[in-house]
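Retro notes (design track)

What went well: tokenization of the new backbones is finally stable.
What didn't: we kept losing track of which sequence belonged to which structure.
Fix going forward: every design gets posted as structure first, then sequence, in one message. First example under the new rule, 348 residues:
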């Protein structure tokens, strides 16, 4: 997972050609190796993380970089929103057993800019705040030991950490303004079985990722996160839905559930835990684990003045929604989950 501990990995890049690059202000660099700046110490990223720099008109020495230039030249707010009645129906998925619980809705106000999956030990940018449920200690300095010793917001003792970008009111898709944080009023944690095979237990410290914070400028493949409304949960969209009066705004994160049986993380934080086919069949050499869903609910915002936190080039685009988890369920709870999903026992 890249947390500080015995399983922390460093980049395997040992020799690389340094290149001098001069960039215009506003360009964004994704570092995938080591880098230096004139007169500054050398940095090496962890293989489980990324660094992003907003260039302000300086010359940098870089190793193996990708330069990303913001694609928007004007605000496209209308494209970011859709009336829920115009959203598509969600695909039908095979029925399976389910096991659900609540970990509260962050009544503790546990928020910070850390991302312990992608960039452990590195404070995140102030414009990208995450909201947490579950483990109450998760922050930039988290370690295996600190997470295991923490308390949790989950009454069933689940010490896992679950997190996603905050929602703000007063902000809009297509602009870079920040409004006030709007906390959720309900969060449901649900795990589902597999329709064609029994599930095996998630290993401790397994990390899961759904969605991508850079989708607006770097389109990705399959990413099952969606927006909907409580009064029309059968409709899903990758845009911000305009819900009917009396409904709640909802974010739904469906995580991948086919584990490679070996790793708890991978360099891109995805290859070790992948999505099944629509039928539920996992790819060869992977094993079905409980499929996690987070459903996050908010009071219906007035109009279209709401958006999630994002990196500046993403301009608050709804398609950049994403979430992470780190599994720290006690063994007894995980065993109960597996029995429920495979046999129907102990589901209550």
């Amino acid at each position: 997972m890249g947390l500080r501990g015995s399983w922390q990995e460093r980049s395997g890049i040992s020799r690389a050609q340094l290149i001098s690059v001069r960039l215009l202000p506003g360009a964004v660099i994704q570092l995938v190796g080591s880098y230096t700046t004139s007169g500054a110490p050398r940095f090496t990223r962890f293989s489980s993380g990324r660094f992003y720099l907003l260039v302000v008109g300086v010359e940098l020495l870089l190793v193996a970089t990708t330069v990303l230039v913001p694609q928007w030249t004007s605000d496209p707010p209308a494209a970011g929103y859709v009336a829920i009645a115009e959203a598509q129906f969600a695909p039908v998925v095979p029925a399976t057993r389910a096991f659900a619980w609540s970990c509260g809705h962050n009544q503790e106000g546990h928020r910070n800019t850390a991302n312990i999956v992608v960039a452990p030990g590195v404070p995140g940018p102030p414009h990208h705040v995450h909201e947490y449920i579950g483990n109450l200690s998760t922050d930039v300095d988290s370690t295996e030991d600190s997470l295991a010793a923490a308390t949790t917001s989950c009454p069933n003792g689940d010490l896992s950490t679950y997190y996603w970008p905050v929602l703000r009111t007063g902000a809009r898709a297509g602009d870079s303004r920040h409004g006030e944080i709007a906390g959720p009023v309900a969060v449901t944690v649900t795990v589902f079985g597999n329709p064609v095979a029994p599930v095996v237990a998630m290993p401790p410290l397994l990390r899961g990722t759904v969605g991508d914070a850079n989708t607006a400028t770097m389109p990705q493949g399959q990413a099952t996160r969606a927006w909907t409304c409580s009064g029309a949960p059968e409709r899903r969209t990758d845009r911000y839905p305009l819900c009917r009066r009396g409904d709640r705004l909802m974010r739904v994160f469906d995580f991948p559930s086919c584990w490679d049986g070996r790793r708890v993380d991978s360099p891109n934080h995805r290859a070790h835990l992948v999505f099944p086919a629509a039928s539920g069949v996992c790819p060869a050499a992977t094993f079905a684990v409980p499929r996690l869903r987070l459903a996050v609910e908010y009071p219906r915002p007035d109009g279209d003045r709401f958006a999630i936190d994002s990196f500046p080039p993403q301009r608050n685009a709804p398609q950049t929604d994403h979430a992470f988890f780190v599994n720290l369920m006690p063994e007894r709870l995980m065993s109960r989950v597996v029995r429920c999903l495979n046999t129907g026992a102990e589901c209550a």
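Added context from the reviewer: The chain has two domains: 19-68, 77-343.
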